[in-house]
Amino acid sequence: MHEDGHIGAVEWAVAGRALPGQRVSGDRSIVLDAGGGAALFAVLDGLGHGNAAAEAADRAAQVLSENRAEPLDVLMVMCHRAMADTRGAAVSLALFDSADRLHWLGVGNVDSRVIAAGPVKPTVRAAALLTGGIVGYLLPPNLQTQTVVVRPGDLLLMSTDGIAGEVVDGIDLAKTTAEITAEILERHAKDTDDALVLAARHRGPTGPVS
Ligand SMILES: [Mn+2]
After folding, report:
1. pTM higher than the cut 0.90
2. pLDDT one-digit tens code per residue, 136-165
3. DSSP one-letter string for the chain
4. What is the 208 CA–ligand 1 centroid distance (Å)?
């Protein structure tokens, strides 16, 4: 599965695939235009595999789509309630609100990082602090959304635990997000799990539009 597009000045792409031998992946991404140039991204890893996991992701997708203007901690609670009769999922939310700020919140094991160009190779500028728990089953009491400043060209990378290994070193930031996610999936998807990676970057308010 490969998808990509633009929301305002934000370029994004997703690459994912089900566990080999399975038809349905329990990993899911949700990409939403949150209005005013803001872009909302969610990556979910539903517990288990196949249809049961996909069901949890479907619930979250609907709730996020209908409430996309709410703050991230409110959205997380809404997802939790909507997924109460599923097996639950790890959920990470990320919102580009303008040219220079990224808000994120994660429960469970979906990685979110900001990758920036370094002197020699790409470096991790910031990583989301993940809180333990299972959305839909056990939500931690203190959901703290973090905000990080991003520069135009910085890359948001969100990946499920089906993506393993040293992902960052091999990223070529000159490539499109579609190329970057396709390469990461190709090189880093584990044979033992569903796998999904999402990349997004803000081109800046006056950056080139391509
Ligand atoms: Mn997984």
Report:
1. yes
2. 999 998 899 999 999 988 999 999 999 998
3. -EEEEEETTEEEEEEEEPPTT-SS-SEEEEEEEEETTEEEEEEEEESSSHHHHHHHHHHHHHHHHHTTTS-HHHHHHHHHHHTTTS--EEEEEEEE-SSSEEEEEEESS-EEEEEE--SSS-EEEEEPPEEP-BBTTB--S----EEEE--TT-EEEEE-TTB-S-TGGG--TTS-HHHHHHHHHHHHB-TTS-EEEEEEEE--TTSPP-
4. 36
